Amino acid sequence: MKSLSKTLLALYLLILLWLVLFKFSFNLSSVLDYQTRSLNLIPFAGASRDNLREMIYNFVVFIPFGLLLSVNLKRANFWRKLAFVFIFSLAAEMIQFVFAIGATDITDVITNTFGGFLGLILYDLSNKYVDNEKLDRFIVVAGTILLILFILLRFLFFKVRYQSAH
What's the pTM value of the predicted model, to 2 decimals? Predict the structure, then answer.
Protein backbone atom coordinates (compact mmCIF):
# COMPACT_ATOMS: atom_id res chain seq x y z
CA MET A 1 0.00 0.00 0.00
CA LYS A 2 2.93 2.35 0.71
CA SER A 3 4.34 2.13 -2.79
CA LEU A 4 0.86 2.66 -4.28
CA SER A 5 0.31 5.74 -2.12
CA LYS A 6 3.70 7.18 -3.14
CA THR A 7 2.97 6.44 -6.80
CA LEU A 8 -0.45 8.06 -6.50
CA LEU A 9 1.09 11.16 -4.90
CA ALA A 10 3.72 11.40 -7.65
CA LEU A 11 1.09 11.01 -10.41
CA TYR A 12 -1.17 13.52 -8.70
CA LEU A 13 1.67 16.07 -8.48
CA LEU A 14 2.54 15.57 -12.15
CA ILE A 15 -1.07 16.03 -13.20
CA LEU A 16 -1.44 19.00 -10.88
CA LEU A 17 1.63 20.63 -12.40
CA TRP A 18 0.32 19.86 -15.90
CA LEU A 19 -2.99 21.46 -14.91
CA VAL A 20 -1.43 24.58 -13.42
CA LEU A 21 1.15 25.11 -16.16
CA PHE A 22 -0.44 23.80 -19.33
CA LYS A 23 -4.17 23.54 -18.58
CA PHE A 24 -4.05 19.88 -19.72
CA SER A 25 -2.91 20.74 -23.24
CA PHE A 26 -0.83 18.22 -25.18
CA ASN A 27 0.12 20.77 -27.79
CA LEU A 28 2.98 22.43 -25.93
CA SER A 29 3.92 24.59 -28.91
CA SER A 30 0.50 26.27 -28.75
CA VAL A 31 0.98 26.81 -25.02
CA LEU A 32 4.44 28.26 -25.56
CA ASP A 33 3.20 30.37 -28.48
CA TYR A 34 0.49 31.75 -26.20
CA GLN A 35 3.21 33.77 -24.44
CA THR A 36 1.35 35.75 -21.87
CA ARG A 37 3.04 37.04 -18.78
CA SER A 38 1.08 38.79 -16.10
CA LEU A 39 1.72 39.17 -12.42
CA ASN A 40 -0.87 39.96 -9.79
CA LEU A 41 0.39 40.44 -6.24
CA ILE A 42 -2.86 41.84 -4.86
CA PRO A 43 -4.93 39.03 -3.33
CA PHE A 44 -8.42 38.62 -4.79
CA ALA A 45 -7.98 41.64 -7.09
CA GLY A 46 -10.57 41.89 -9.83
CA ALA A 47 -12.82 39.27 -8.29
CA SER A 48 -15.62 38.31 -10.65
CA ARG A 49 -17.89 35.36 -11.24
CA ASP A 50 -15.36 33.75 -13.59
CA ASN A 51 -12.53 34.36 -11.14
CA LEU A 52 -14.62 32.92 -8.32
CA ARG A 53 -15.12 29.73 -10.32
CA GLU A 54 -11.37 29.45 -10.92
CA MET A 55 -10.68 30.09 -7.22
CA ILE A 56 -13.08 27.30 -6.26
CA TYR A 57 -11.44 24.94 -8.79
CA ASN A 58 -7.99 25.78 -7.43
CA PHE A 59 -9.19 25.20 -3.88
CA VAL A 60 -10.86 21.87 -4.67
CA VAL A 61 -8.05 20.46 -6.80
CA PHE A 62 -5.55 20.98 -3.96
CA ILE A 63 -7.62 19.19 -1.29
CA PRO A 64 -6.29 15.76 -2.36
CA PHE A 65 -2.77 17.17 -2.05
CA GLY A 66 -3.25 17.58 1.71
CA LEU A 67 -4.82 14.14 2.01
CA LEU A 68 -2.06 12.41 0.04
CA LEU A 69 0.69 14.24 1.90
CA SER A 70 -0.83 13.08 5.17
CA VAL A 71 -0.90 9.49 3.94
CA ASN A 72 2.70 9.61 2.72
CA LEU A 73 4.48 11.88 5.20
CA LYS A 74 3.55 10.44 8.57
CA ARG A 75 6.56 11.87 10.38
CA ALA A 76 6.21 15.41 9.07
CA ASN A 77 4.17 17.72 11.23
CA PHE A 78 1.13 19.64 10.00
CA TRP A 79 3.04 22.87 9.36
CA ARG A 80 5.76 21.20 7.28
CA LYS A 81 3.15 19.54 5.10
CA LEU A 82 1.33 22.86 4.71
CA ALA A 83 4.63 24.55 3.84
CA PHE A 84 5.17 21.89 1.16
CA VAL A 85 1.77 22.68 -0.37
CA PHE A 86 2.54 26.41 -0.28
CA ILE A 87 6.01 25.99 -1.83
CA PHE A 88 4.67 23.71 -4.57
CA SER A 89 1.96 26.23 -5.44
CA LEU A 90 4.36 29.18 -5.34
CA ALA A 91 6.89 27.33 -7.50
CA ALA A 92 4.23 26.49 -10.10
CA GLU A 93 3.13 30.13 -10.25
CA MET A 94 6.76 31.28 -10.57
CA ILE A 95 7.36 28.81 -13.41
CA GLN A 96 4.30 30.23 -15.19
CA PHE A 97 5.78 33.72 -14.91
CA VAL A 98 9.33 32.82 -15.90
CA PHE A 99 8.24 30.91 -19.00
CA ALA A 100 5.34 33.28 -19.81
CA ILE A 101 2.82 30.44 -19.98
CA GLY A 102 0.02 31.93 -17.95
CA ALA A 103 -1.08 34.45 -15.41
CA THR A 104 0.86 34.44 -12.16
CA ASP A 105 -1.52 35.32 -9.36
CA ILE A 106 -1.07 35.44 -5.60
CA THR A 107 -4.75 34.53 -5.31
CA ASP A 108 -3.95 31.15 -6.88
CA VAL A 109 -1.22 30.54 -4.31
CA ILE A 110 -3.65 31.43 -1.51
CA THR A 111 -6.55 29.30 -2.78
CA ASN A 112 -4.24 26.38 -3.60
CA THR A 113 -2.72 26.51 -0.13
CA PHE A 114 -6.13 26.69 1.53
CA GLY A 115 -7.23 23.65 -0.46
CA GLY A 116 -4.20 21.72 0.76
CA PHE A 117 -4.87 23.04 4.27
CA LEU A 118 -8.41 21.64 4.16
CA GLY A 119 -7.08 18.27 2.97
CA LEU A 120 -4.64 18.18 5.89
CA ILE A 121 -7.39 19.13 8.36
CA LEU A 122 -9.81 16.55 6.92
CA TYR A 123 -7.17 13.85 7.30
CA ASP A 124 -6.38 14.82 10.89
CA LEU A 125 -10.07 14.98 11.86
CA SER A 126 -10.88 11.67 10.15
CA ASN A 127 -7.87 10.05 11.76
CA LYS A 128 -9.42 10.70 15.18
CA TYR A 129 -12.46 8.57 14.28
CA VAL A 130 -11.14 6.05 11.75
CA ASP A 131 -8.26 3.61 12.07
CA ASN A 132 -5.15 5.03 10.43
CA GLU A 133 -4.60 2.07 8.08
CA LYS A 134 -8.25 1.99 7.00
CA LEU A 135 -8.23 5.74 6.37
CA ASP A 136 -5.04 5.54 4.33
CA ARG A 137 -6.38 2.58 2.33
CA PHE A 138 -9.63 4.43 1.63
CA ILE A 139 -7.79 7.58 0.48
CA VAL A 140 -5.45 5.62 -1.79
CA VAL A 141 -8.19 3.46 -3.33
CA ALA A 142 -10.58 6.40 -3.77
CA GLY A 143 -7.75 8.56 -5.11
CA THR A 144 -6.74 5.91 -7.62
CA ILE A 145 -10.31 5.49 -8.85
CA LEU A 146 -10.81 9.26 -9.09
CA LEU A 147 -7.50 9.68 -10.91
CA ILE A 148 -8.47 7.04 -13.48
CA LEU A 149 -11.91 8.61 -13.93
CA PHE A 150 -10.39 12.04 -14.25
CA ILE A 151 -7.96 10.91 -16.93
CA LEU A 152 -10.73 9.15 -18.83
CA LEU A 153 -12.98 12.21 -18.65
CA ARG A 154 -10.14 14.46 -19.76
CA PHE A 155 -9.42 12.44 -22.86
CA LEU A 156 -13.00 11.54 -23.74
CA PHE A 157 -14.90 14.74 -23.03
CA PHE A 158 -12.74 17.78 -22.33
CA LYS A 159 -10.64 19.21 -25.10
CA VAL A 160 -8.52 22.19 -24.15
CA ARG A 161 -7.28 24.45 -26.89
CA TYR A 162 -5.09 27.50 -26.74
CA GLN A 163 -5.42 30.31 -29.18
CA SER A 164 -2.29 32.03 -30.29
CA ALA A 165 -1.94 35.66 -29.23
CA HIS A 166 -0.62 36.54 -32.72
Answer: 0.85
